[in-house]
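Researcher: Good morning. I'm working through a list of sequences from a screen, and I'd like to move beyond sequence-only analysis. For each chain I'm collecting a predicted structure so we can compare shapes side by side. This is the next one on the list. No need for commentary yet; just the structure.
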Amino acid sequence: MKIILINRRYGGSRSVELGRWSRALLSLCCLGLPLGIAAVGYVAGQHSDVRTLRGAALDSLQDDLEQQSVELQDLRSQAQRKLQALTLNLAELQARMTRIDALGEHLTAIADLEGGEFNFSEPPALGGPLAGEFNVDFTTLDLGAELARLEAHLSDREEQLDILQSLWVNRKLGEQSWLSGRPVRKGWVSSRYGVRTDPFTGKPAVHKGIDFAGREGSEIIAAAAGVVSWTGARPGYGQVVEISHGDGFITRYGHNKQNLVEPGDLVRKGQAIALMGSTGRSTGAHVHYEVYKHGRPVDPSSYVARTRR
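Model: Good morning. Structure tokens for this chain:
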């Protein structure tokens, strides 16, 4: 094969004789170059498609991750709200438990129970052998339901303790209003109820009360709880205190040196209401104690001899 090369500038030409291997190499170059370019383009296209697919997959995965992150944040927010609600509920139950403990200690005190029998300042004593047949799955435990059951249990206990407290209060009020005992802390009976010889005239006269003699200035106490209905000087009685106890009962304390209460005052059983003296028609320091039932004087002896409820 002969190839003629022409030089346009100088107008000359030159011929080149190609052998068999030269022709093969030239053919290979002429045919291989386009094929190589095509192959390179194909490979480049394949890599571009792979990059495109890979980018799309990464974008989709990124979107999924972002969506899962949003859902996880929502779950965390819901869990936080539920935890806050449970915390508030638990705090309320703890406050109610504290109230129950305080009420229990109060009832224990007013009931005069032996020390240690009911100790509300310590957790309750519990025990028993391990029972393997009972297995609790804490993963399925509904804390809300458990708190609701505990709240219902506490409500029932609170109601029972309130009723018990009311009964004890009523009992204490009954004990306070129970007319019993002497109107003095120290002293002795110097004159009883009934007909006696009057110390001023020497003639028989009805004595409507009991006289308790003692040291001047010593305390005179209320025989029962009640409301002071009258205080002041009264002919024959000197300085007097009257107390209304309800159920038609009134007690009167006369010849006082000084009255310590005023009308309208609430007094407790055993509270000091006056100081012993000798005012009015009296021969010495003592208290003249009378009991009226529905407006009529009665012998105080039976009430003085009464024991506390």
